[in-house]
Write the C-alpha cells for this entry.
Amino acid sequence: MVFGSYKRENWDIIYEFYNATRTVKEWLTFLFYGENETNR
C-alpha cells in the first residue's frame, strides 16, 4: 500500500517535471523564434 502510493507519487513528480521541461522548451522556442514566426 505504502509502496504503491510512493510509486504513484514518483510518477506524478516525473510527469510534472516532464510538463515543466516541455513548457520551458516552448517558452525558449517562443522567445528565440516567436518574433520571426509572428512577423511572417
